[in-house]
Specification:
CATH topology of the largest domain: Rossmann fold
Largest sheet: 7 strands, mixed
GO cellular component, one term: membrane
Organism: Sphaerotilus mobilis
CATH architecture of the largest domain: 3-Layer(aba) Sandwich
Number of domains: 6
CATH class of the largest domain: Alpha Beta
Distance between the termini: 85 Å
Keywords: 4Fe-4S, Iron, Iron-sulfur, Metal-binding, Molybdenum, Nitrate assimilation, Oxidoreductase
GO molecular function: 4 iron, 4 sulfur cluster binding; metal ion binding; molybdopterin cofactor binding; oxidoreductase activity
Number of strands: 37
Number of helices: 31
Family: Belongs to the prokaryotic molybdopterin-containing oxidoreductase family. NasA/NapA/NarB subfamily.
Strand order of the largest sheet: 5-4-18-17-16-6-7
Strand content: 15-25%
Helix content: 25-40%
């Protein structure tokens, strides 16, 4: 067995991993103890990476060869690589010749490597002469980019991960860090344990697991962040908590900001934000960090999509940065605004200019000198001055017929972009759609004219940059499956063909040689390195061998032996005069206001164990155990007002579309708010016309950043009566479940509501599939027959009951040992809960006999009902944790001691640690429950003790 060091492909923390592999197969993964981002830790997603790359999944879930359609609507058929590459080059050349270079669009991904990004960017902006190259990083980080550039002069997070251990106050806003960046949250937990005086402030409309452990939770109304920031600054000025000398020496624009916040008092903000005035004051004082001796404790802010995904995303970013500038909380150990990157290489993509409004090396497209520099370095006559289409604009242009060819790489716009009705109209109308993808089952695949198979994690070779500007190597452990190729190599080969098909844009000095003479990822990276020379992100002091030895932070200019941990330590910024710039925007609400027609605020967010569109994580049943099925979360009182209970189906509607979903009571939400996880696309959430969660979200963008307001929509929710329902579940061989799920999607589309999710723990060599269906018409015999055939309910030992007149159809498949391994309930589905428990716990079904077919809502099995999973690594349930805590001795009242005893007994939270925030909450709940019981017992004792009775009694 061999081991290869690489980097995790999920969030922007950038964790190092060690991949175990043998005989061309990945056999395991562990955290790299020497990587400075994670020091060996991994979250649930990272620790299961090897299970997403098993030989079976590489064979069944991945694309192996180029595929093309003869015409729209025809099935994809295999073609050779040369034919595929020629076809791309021919179609792009024809489109450019007939309609101009801006008739072509490139839509890329923050999961591409820096080298992939560089080749695509050069292909679009240098060879073709169009800035129509954008990325799904536009959906997550462009407001952070715009905020940094506006305030500090460059897209450069100034702080680093080590600052977590040095901060006195940590201000988390717009991020459920415990779920979205769990390994970094472990570092925060360590810092709080070592520094009991540290204050944690969390700003979030929901009481997430991050908010639940905060010293102060500001549960603001969605979209009121700018008002909150301004009110905090108002307090800092009123109480003299600002650093006037630092402001005068290092900033511009303070007087306009002072005037802006003059009337934005905490009392006014409290009414608009929906939080107590005293909490706003406390947050401002902790943020300012002023000590009794006149010094200043450091404050670190951490933020993500709650600030970025907004029509005022840039304003939210700049007004947060204002707080740091006002107090001089920047460039110092433990202080600064640190945006948490959503994707593993959103930072690297920005470095090479992989957005429609940027150029390589953090150059500005609108700056003629910068365009001339890039043109000279690439050896082309010019880089066009006209900005390209940002992500949403690009698809709107395709829907309008302006963009006629789209090349999509490593992303799934038919799931992830807002306003899916528009996106799918764009994909249908666009004359030529190329999809460069690793997985065969994404929602975008049916719209592609040509599909190019790409390598993925464990196979790729190159580099990525994480949230703290740290560049890490990505190394291959195995070869890509089938004929799949690296993304940069595919782009290079098309570019070389286009050079022969398009008029040359080369300068006389560079004519006669290819712009794309790249042989290795290192050769691409070296060209990128040269384009950073003299820039704020200068990495000319690094070489490929240095990156192989250890990850490094930029900048690291020539002559410097190590990277730079913190920026702006001298108080000079990347602006014309070296001064930071205050921004003074007026507070604005969300793009959509709630009203009588749409009275609820719909927000979106991540799940703990899922990633983006679930093309990788959705192949593992164990990663769906924590949140097993799609559901709309709603406050209990809002449910009661509508006569709803948990599990009821509702129709949630926005101004763009509607979905039918189960509803779930949530204690995390305020009234008049609903919440839906971002991951549920049409691959999982079916039904007639369903395009997943982003059927509902809005495309209105921040005017400065172009980032859409995915986080908030005005919505309405109403009960929906769909009496004809079915629930089916089955254990399937690992080799069959991907194809079975694809076949089920065709059946799901014929019903009003359907969901299909995997379950189970993979080492048994099988994966479970759970299907739920609701419809306004009886399920046809043909439909049920097809379903039973797919789930192997039409052969072997099958118990059956059918009464088509009453609309009842039940089938139970038992294996040779008498265990239930598949079932279908159609009509009366009330037994689904206990039957699913029986299936998953491998209970003795044969002993139950005909009671299986009776489908009683009460379980005849002695097996206990399955409790919700808390620990994904070891499959530890809530009930086991509560039982163990309840059995601890009376003297164990210290939370740390109780947690240690719990972990010693069940081992939960001892591996990846993603469940630790929840475990700490459960420990505290158990102590609270114990106190309540003790008080009740004491009260009962006082009531029953002898006492004198007055004559009046």
């Amino acid at each position: 067995m061999a081991e290869t060091r690489s980097t995790c492909p999920y969030c922007g923390v950038g964790c190092g991993v060690v991949i175990a592999h043998e005989a061309g197969a990945i056999t395991g993964v562990r955290g790299d103890p020497d990587h400075p981002a994670n020091f060996g830790r991994l979250c649930t997603k990272g620790s299961t990476l090897h299970l997403t790359a098993t030989p079976v999944l590489l064979q069944t879930a991945r694309l192996h060869r180029p595929m093309a359609r003869t015409q729209r609507g025809a099935p994809l058929a295999p073609i050779g690589w040369d034919t595929a590459l020629d076809r791309v080059a021919d179609r792009l050349a024809a489109t450019i010749t007939d309609h101009g270079p801006d008739a072509v669009g490139f839509y890329l991904s923050g999961q591409l490597l820096t080298e992939d990004y560089h080749v695509f960017n050069k292909l679009a902006k240098g060879l073709i002469g169009s800035n129509n190259v954008d990325t799904n990083s536009r959906l997550c980080m462009s407001s952070a980019v715009s905020g940094y550039k506006s305030s500090l002069g460059a897209d450069a997070p100034p702080a680093c991960y080590d600052d977590l251990a040095l901060a006195r106050t940590v201000f988390i806003t717009g991020s459920n860090m415990a779920w979205a960046h769990p390994v970094l949250f472990r570092r925060l937990e360590d810092a709080r344990a070592a520094r009991p005086d540290m204050k944690l402030v969390v700003v979030d409309p929901r009481r997430t697991e991050t908010a639940a452990v905060a010293d102060l939770h500001l549960a603001i109304q969605p979209g009121t962040d700018v008002m909150l920031h301004h009110a905090m600054l108002h307090i800092m000025l009123a109480e003299g908590l600002h650093d006037a000398a630092w402001i005068a020496a290092h900033t511009n624009g303070f007087e306009a900001l002072r005037e802006r916040v003059r009337d934005l008092t905490p009392a006014r903000a409290a009414r608009i934000c929906g939080v107590p005035e005293t909490d706003i004051v406390q947050a401002a004082r902790w943020f300012a960090g002023q000590s009794t001796d006149g010094g200043r404790f450091p404050t670190l802010s951490l933020y993500c999509q709650g600030l970025n995904q907004s029509s005022s995303g840039t304003d939210k970013n700049t007004t947060l940065i204002n707080l740091h500038l006002t107090t001089g909380q920047i460039g110092q150990p433990g202080a600064g605004p640190l945006s948490l990157t959503g994707q593993p290489n959103a930072m690297g993509g920005r470095e090479v200019g992989g957005l429609a409004t940027l150029l390589s090396g953090h150059r500005d497209l609108g700056n003629p000198e910068h365009r001339a520099e890039v043109a000279r370095l690439w050896g082309v006559t010019d880089v066009p001055a006209r900005p390209g289409k940002a992500a949403v604009q690009m698809f709107e242009a395709a829907a309008d017929g302006e963009i006629r060819a789209l090349w999509i790489a490593c992303t799934n716009p038919a799931q992830s972009l807002p306003d899916q009705a528009m996106v799918r109209r764009a994909l249908e109308r666009c004359e030529f759609v190329v999809l460069q993808e690793a997985y065969r089952h994404t929602a975008t695949t049916p719209y592609a004219d040509l599909v190019l198979p790409a390598s993925s994690w464990g196979e790729k070779d190159g580099s990525v940059t994480n949230s703290e500007r740290r560049i890490s190597r990505v190394r291959p452990a195995i070869d890509a499956p089938g004929l799949a190729r690296h993304d940069w190599l595919i782009a290079r080969d098309v570019a070389q063909r286009l050079e022969a098909r398009l008029p040359s844009r080369r300068t006389p000095e560079s004519a006669g040689r290819s712009m794309f003479d790249f042989r290795t990822p290192e050769s691409v990276w070296l060209e990128h390195r040269e384009m950073t020379r003299g820039r704020d992100l200068d990495i000319t002091g690094l070489d490929w061998a240095a990156l192989d030895r250890a990850p490094a932070q930029w900048p690291c200019p020539q002559g410097q032996t190590t990277g730079t941990a913190r920026l702006y330590t001298d108080g000079r910024f990347v602006t014309g005069d070296g001064r930071a710039r205050f921004s003074a925007p007026a507070p604005r609400g969300p793009a959509e206001s709630c009203d009588d027609d749409f009275p609820l605020a719909l927000t979106s967010g991540r799940l703990r164990d899922q990633w983006h569109g679930m093309s990788r994580t959705g192949t593992l049943g164990r990663l769906l155990a924590h949140t097993p099925e799609p559901a709309l979360q709603m406050h209990r009182r809002d449910l009661e007002r509508r006569g709803l209970t948990g599990g009821d189906l509702v129709r949630v509607r926005t101004r763009r579309g509607e979905l039918v979903l189960p509803v779930q009571a949530s204690d995390e939400l305020a009234e008049a708010q609903v919440h839906l996880a971002m991951h549920w696309g049409s691959e999982v959430l079916g039904g007639a016309g369903s395009a997943g969660v982003n059927t509902l979200t809005q495309p209105i963008c921040c005017p400065s950043s172009g980032q859409p307001e995915l986080k908030h929509s005005a919505a309405q929710v109403e009960a929906v009566d769909l009496p004809w329902r079915a629930v089916a579940a089955a254990w399937l061989p690992e080799s069959d479940w991907v194809s079975t799920r694809e076949a089920l999607q065709a059946l799901m589309a014929r019903q009003t509501y359907a969901s299909c999710v995997p379950f189970g723990r993979e080492p048994q060599g099988r994966v479970g599939l759970l299907l739920r269906v609701a419809a306004d018409q009886p399920l046809s015999a043909d439909w049920l027959s097809q379903l039973q055939a797919l789930l192997k309910l039409d052969a072997g030992t099958v118990l059956r009951y059918a009464d088509r007149h009453a609309g009842q159809d039940r089938a139970m498949h038992l294996d040779k040992a008498g265990r239930l391994d598949a079932f279908l309930l159609s009509g009366d589905t009330r037994a689904a809960s206990w039957m699913l428990d029986l299936l998953q716990q491998d209970g003795d079904a044969a002993a139950l006999g005909r009671s299986l077919l009776a489908a009683s809502p009460t379980s005849p099995s002695p097996l206990p009902a399955r409790s919700p999973q808390i620990c994904a690594c070891l499959d530890v349930s809530l009930q086991r944790i509560q039982d163990t805590l309840g059995a601890l001795p009376e003297h164990s009242a210290d939370p740390a001691d109780r947690l240690a005893r719990l972990q010693g007994e069940l081992k939960c939270g001892t591996q990846c640690g993603s469940c630790l925030p929840k475990l700490r909450t459960l420990v505290q709940d158990s102590l609270t429950a114990k106190v309540v019981v003790q008080v009740a017992v004491a009260s009962a004792a006082r009531t029953s003790s002898p006492r004198s009775i007055s004559p009046m009694a």
